[in-house]
Write a structure and sequence with these properties.
Chain A: InterPro entries: HypA/HybF. The complex is a heterodimer of chains A (112) and B (262). Chain A has 112 residues and is α+β, with helices and mostly antiparallel strands. Helices cover 25% and strands 34% of the residues of chain A. Chain A has a domain of 75 residues: 2-Layer Sandwich (hypothetical protein PF0899 fold), CATH 3.30.2320.50. Chain B is α/β, with parallel strands linked by helices. In chain B, 41% of the residues are buried. Classes of the chains: A alpha+beta (112), B alpha/beta (262). The interface between A and B is large, with 37 and 45 residues. β6 of chain A pairs antiparallel with β1 of chain B.
């Protein structure tokens, strides 16, 4: 699915930041409200980067649980399903405070 | 954003505490001897990036949006699974709004011009984006793809542009293209549980068109259960029930479409 094009976007960011250094590892945060499959993403990463300077680099994904804050009772709920309901009062007027992350946090480099 | 900070110069020893924030022991002794940055060290360096992966797409989406604003065009991103009825709905829309707002359509498809052909001759400016170039074909339109189509649309002569995205309930939801509003077409043949299975798409929609309602008498489909699931993931989306076959709800859909204007 879209993991392939996501990998190409990641490559663009990584190349810009790594300059001439060799990339060993790319650390990502992926929120659980993102429809991104980590295993597919790492598979696509190896596919997209085969025979490129990024070949052999590792994509390391930290999954970020989804959390909402209720605007009614101010309670926070960690979600185990994408159902946006406050666990404390049952309210549906909620804000997503975590779980939508999709970012490159850091790179691990060795000198080329 | 996301500034690169190399550690191979003198005078940046302060950075190394941050570089090891995840407690990884690299064993090359920066802490013990901050003066030893001789360049012989081949251990890994961790550099902070903190860059959102969609930043580049979003920057292009903002450029698209600026072009739409400059031309005074309202843009709606129309998404659905394959076969939910986007193209049929658009045909009915163009027929209903004939003589009204001047409409352009960006038609996204992995291959073929079949859908674009179906929309021809109904008074709209139609341009096709085939996403099939490259690695297996993209399953969505992203902002650069839409940008590539804009020179083929007479934006200054249009009031409304509808972007018919590639039929897919997953990927299009992740990519902003510069639209003012998002509508999705959901058909009652798809099952009540789809909002829970594809929450990103349902959550991102400003309007959900519930299509093919003429089929309800023939299906073991519970509309109430669908609405419960929809509200669980998106309490705020507007809803219009339609049947392209009978014409039910097409007027209300067109009212929403022409009311998106800021």
């Amino acid at each position: 699915m879209h993991e392939l094009s996501l990998c190409r976007s990641i490559v663009g960011v990584v190349e810009r930041h790594a300059d001439t250094a060799r990339v060993r590892r790319v650390n990502l945060q992926v929120g659980q409200l993102r429809q991104v499959v980590p295993a597919t993403l790492t598979y696509c990463w190896s596919l997209v980067n085969a025979d490129t300077p990024l070949g052999g680099s590792e994509l390391c994904i930290e999954s970020v649980p989804a959390r909402i804050r209720c605007t009614g009772c101010a309670g926070t709920t960690e979600l185990d399903a994408p159902v946006l309901v406050c666990a404390h009062c049952g309210g549906t007027a909620v804000q997503v405070v975590a779980g939508e992350e999709f970012l490159i946090t850091s790179l691990e480099l060795t000198e080329a | 954003m996301g500034r690169f900070h190399r550690h191979d110069e003198h005078g940046h020893a302060h950075e190394h505490g941050q570089a090891h924030e995840h407690g990884q022991a690299h064993g090359h002794g920066h802490g013990a001897d901050p003066g030893d940055h001789s360049g012989y060290d081949t251990g890994p360096e961790r550099v902070s990036v903190l860059e959102r992966i969609f930043d580049e797409n979003d920057a292009t989406a903002a450029a698209n949006r600026a072009d739409f604003e400059a031309a005074g065009v309202t843009v709606v991103n129309l998404m659905s699974s394959p076969g939910a009825g986007k193209t049929s709905l658009l045909r009915a829309t163009l027929q209903r709004l004939a003589g009204g707002p001047r409409i352009g359509i960006v038609e996204g498809d992995i291959e073929t011009s079949i859908d674009a052909d179906r929309l021809a001759g109904l008074g709209a400016a139609v341009t096709l984006v085939n996403t099939g170039n490259g690695f297996g074909g993209e399953c969505h339109l992203d902002a650069p793809m839409v940008r590539s189509a804009l020179p083929r649309l007479p934006l200054n002569e249009l009031d409304l542009v509808i972007i018919e995205n590639v039929g897919n309930l997953v990927c299009p939801a992740e990519f902003a293209v510069g639209e003012h509003s998002r509508a999705m077409v959901y058909s009652v043949t798809e099952g009540e549980d789809k909002p829970l299975k594809y929450p990103v798409m349902f959550r991102s929609a400003d309007l959900v068109v519930v299509n093919k309602i003429d089929l309800l008498p023939h299906l073991p489909f519970e509309l109430d259960a669908f609405y419960r699931n929809l509200r669980a993931v998106n309490p705020d989306a507007a809803v219009v029930e339609t049947s392209v076959l009978t014409g039910a709800g097409i007027g209300r859909w067109c009212d929403w479409l022409t009311g998106v204007r800021r």
